[in-house]
Design goal:
By secondary structure, the chain is of the alpha/beta class. Helices cover 54% and strands 13% of the residues.
Length: 275
């Protein structure tokens, strides 16, 4: 109605500006619809794979894919684990829900672009610490890297191992006990894990010890709970300072400005060990 009024008044410049604005809004709406539909289509084969593993129907899995994040938050608020043992036990009990939650989240375009950014940094032997359902670890193994997948025991870890066997990937090891991890790594990932730990400093110390000379440590540290993620602990740990004090230097470089939106975030850290 506003545009028609401008036409009646003969205000062509204002009409052109409004038309351009509506065209942009229309383009945004089309792109949003395309992204939503694309996500729905890619969800189907993922749901089929999970259904094969769990024995559930495809409809049951699709329902869980859409509700797992909310259920996890509710379970955490109800149980409120606090000690390291209680937290580890909670993750074991809720591991199947994490299969659904991670499968859904990892299909979003923003996360795919983020993962592609970080996979390009991989060199040599790789440790994926807190690897969950194994999306990153399995893809790196497909690309020829020797990979160690580490996470708490539970269905998410079993799902990752099952997927590796189905794909015939032999260059990947699975561990749930840090003491069984041998040797050094040229690349270590610790994505979306430190905020879930009661003592992230102890985990960081372990990762630094396992990093080879000139190796790259790639991690996220979004400390602090949110409505959707009440299981994220708040910590006063200065991760950057800790890494500098242990001989690592900031290596994020140009990704700080030209990486994907998720890669550019401040809590995404990329540090290299000096020789």
């Amino acid at each position: 109605a506003f545009v028609l009024a401008l036409v009646a008044e003969g205000d062509r410049s204002a009409f052109a500006a409004c038309a351009g604005l509506f065209a942009c809004l229309g383009t945004t709406e089309v792109l949003a619809a395309f992204t939503f539909n694309w996500h729905g289509r890619t969800l189907a084969p993922v749901a089929d794979e999970i259904a094969t593993f769990t024995g559930e129907t495809r409809d049951q899995v699709r329902c869980q894919l859409l509700s797992a994040n909310r259920t996890l938050a509710e379970n955490w608020r109800r149980e409120r684990p606090s000690s390291p043992e209680e937290v580890a036990a909670w993750y074991r009990r809720n591991a199947r829900l994490y299969i659904y939650d991670l499968a859904n989240f990892h299909l979003y375009g923003k996360h795919i672009r983020f993962t592609l950014d970080l996979m390009k940094l991989a060199r040599g032997r790789v440790l994926d610490f807190g690897a969950g359902t194994g999306d990153l670890a399995l893809e790196l193994a497909r690309r020829g890297h020797e990979v160690v997948h580490f996470d708490v025991d539970g269905e998410a870890r079993l799902f990752a191992s099952w997927r590796a066997r189905r794909a015939g990937l032999r260059s990947i090891e699975f561990h749930t006990d840090r003491r069984r991890i041998r040797g050094l790594f040229e690349t270590i990932y610790a994505l979306d894990v430190l905020e879930h730990l009661v003592d992230p400093e102890e985990a960081l110390r372990f990762l630094v010890e396992r990093l080879a000379p000139h190796g790259l440590l790639i991690l996220t540290a979004p400390f602090g709970s949110t409505e959707a993620h009440p299981m994220h602990f708040s910590h006063a740990l200065d991760v950057r300072r800790f890494l500098r004090e242990h001989g690592l230097r900031d290596a994020k470089g140009r990704l700080r400005w030209i990486g994907s939106a998720m890669t550019r975030r401040r809590h995404v850290l990329i540090y290299r060990r000096d020789g």
